[in-house]
Every structure is written in structure tokens, then in C-alpha cells.
Amino acid sequence: MSCREYIGHQEPCHHSVIGQDVNKAAEQVKVLLGLRHLMGWENICMQDQGAAEQASRAEGTTETFDLVVVGAGVAGLNALYAATDYLPKGARVLLIDQKQGPGGMWNTAYDFVRLHQPHPMFTVGDVKWDWTKPRDYLAKRDEVRAHLTSALGPVSDSVELETAFEQTVVEAEEVQTDYGYKAKVVFRPNAADSPTRTVLANVAIHAQG
Ligand SMILES: Cc1cc2nc3c(=O)[nH]c(=O)nc-3n(C[C@H](O)[C@H](O)[C@H](O)COP(=O)(O)OP(=O)(O)OC[C@H]3O[C@@H](n4cnc5c(N)ncnc54)[C@H](O)[C@@H]3O)c2cc1C
User: Fold this and answer.
1) Which DSSP state fits 84?
2) Atom 25 of ligand 1 has which residue's CA nearest to it?
3) Does 94 sit in the ligand 1 pocket, CB within 6 Å?
4) Which CATH architecture fits 3-206?
5) What is the C-alpha separation between 168 and 183, in angstroms, rounded?
6) What percent of the chain has pLDDT over 70?
7) Is the pLDDT assigned to residue 138 strictly greater than 60?
8) Mean pLDDT over residues 71-83, rounded?
9) Burial (0-12, 13-18, 19+ Cβ within 10 Å), 93
């Protein structure tokens, strides 16, 4: 089965096809963590390393990323972490979030809230908590946020990660280019009248909570 057939498109894709596995990995992340809103693999074709730059040139001034993740909460971070297993080293990845940093809702929760479950189980991929507190310790808001932020370290070790915090995605759609289907993502600084930036992605993940 080609990746295009897998996501219901008419035309077969001739790029290297690992999208099905990526999708399965993301599904597993969703099931394992009980997350509700990991969705929208807009385009699950992965291309060879360098293809992003090639497509960028084809598109003129529009930058192309191998992967764009919208939402840096625990769902987006897990999807990002899982995807790096499938992306070539140095792949270009863009992580966009309205908040000032990673952690999603843990950025804006009240400061007295704590995890409901033992902290080691609430993580990104297999990233360990950087302490030796008892397993049943219920982590505080800022501790959760710090831990989720730390997960970007291992991600940055394997891909070229650009982050765009305090930015709002205002449009995301699939477009056809000379280099195959891409996800077009338009975002801008949170201030409503800021100019927008448009990028293309081979894969886009929406994990917006
Ligand atoms: C007190 C408390 C304790 C909890 N304890 C546990 C627990 O023990 N175990 C457990 O599994 N769960 C627990 N949860 C629930 C868990 O924390 C949440 O389900 C989880 O954090 C949600 O993650 P998410 O990534 O889906 O969404 P979010 O954390 O909401 O992240 C979504 C992100 O998408 C961004 N976004 C949305 N729209 C846009 C846009 N247009 N452009 C750019 N960015 C956008 C948002 O800014 C946000 O940062 C708890 C929740 C609370 C409140």
C-alpha cells in the first residue's frame, strides 16, 4: 500500500514510505497516554533527507520542513519524540505553540495543581525525570512544565529543531506542489495584527489540546 492510499488519496506516492509506521507510533502514543486530541497527519509521506530544501527552492521563498508540529503540550511533544525515530538525522522540524514555552496547559494551570498519577508515567517517550523523588510523588505544575521542556533536549540531538513559541497557527491545509502533497501552515505572533509566516511541511501534526 502506498502512503497516499493509506490516507485516502487517489494518487500513489513514490517517496520512501514510512508514514504508516509513524502513524502507528503516534497512535500508540495516544493510546498509552490516554490523550484525546492527537490528530491530523496531513501528509504522511516522508521524503529523503534534503528533499525539504529541494521543495523550498521549488516553492520560491516558502520554507519547507520535514515535520511541523502544532502544539507543544504532552501530546505534541510525544508525537514529535516518536517521529524523530523515523526522521533522518538533521531533518528540519518546526514546533509551533501559542504558549511561551513547551508544556501546553501546564503553562497556564493554577500554581497549586499537581499531577494525578505517579510522575514517572507522565513523560515524553522514555525521557526520565531528572530527580530521585519517590515514584508516587505527584509533581507540581512547574515541575511538570520543566520536565516536559527537558524533552526537547533529546529531540534537538537528532533533528534540526526550530521552535516558534507565542505564535498562533491561523491556517493549515494540504496543497499540491511539483514535489507532491505538502501541508501548508500559516502562523503569526499572537498579537492579532502581526504579519504571518507561511511554511510547507512534508508532515504536519496537530496536537492542539
Ligand atoms: C490538575 C491536573 C492534573 C492532571 N494529571 C494528569 C495525570 O496525572 N495524568 C495524565 O495523563 N493527565 C493528567 N492531566 C491531564 C493532562 O495534563 C492533559 O490531558 C494534557 O496535558 C493535555 O495535553 P495536550 O498536549 O493534549 O493539550 P495541551 O496541553 O492543551 O496542549 C495543546 C497546545 O496547543 C497549543 N495550541 C492550540 N491551538 C493552537 C494554535 N492555533 N496555534 C498554536 N498553538 C496552539 C496550545 O497553546 C497548547 O500549548 C491532568 C490535568 C490537570 C489539570
Assistant:
1) T
2) 73
3) no
4) 3-Layer(bba) Sandwich (3.50)
5) 16
6) 71
7) yes
8) 98
9) buried
**180 CB less than 6 Å from ligand 1?**
no
C-beta 103 within 6 A of ligand 1: no
Average pLDDT, integer, range 127-149: 97
pLDDT at position 192 is 81
Whether 74 has a pLDDT exceeding 60, the answer reads yes
pLDDT category at 54 given cuts 50, 70, 90 is: low
Does the beta carbon of 161 sit less than 6 angstroms from any atom of ligand 1? no
Nearest CA to ligand 1 atom 41: 169
- Let me know: does 11 contact 45? Beta carbons within 8 Å: no
Residue whose CA is at the smallest distance from ligand 1 atom 3: 115
Question: Are residues 154 and 85 in contact, defined by beta-carbon separation less than 8 angstroms?
Answer: no
Of 143 and 9, which is predicted with more confidence?
143
124 lines ligand 1 (CB under 6 A): no
| Strands 167-177 and 63-70, sheet pairing | unpaired
Is 72 near ligand 1, meaning CB less than 6 Å away? yes
> Ligand 1 centroid to 143 CA: how many Å?
15
pTM of the model: 0.80
Burial class (CB in 10 A: 0-12, 13-18, 19+), 189: middle
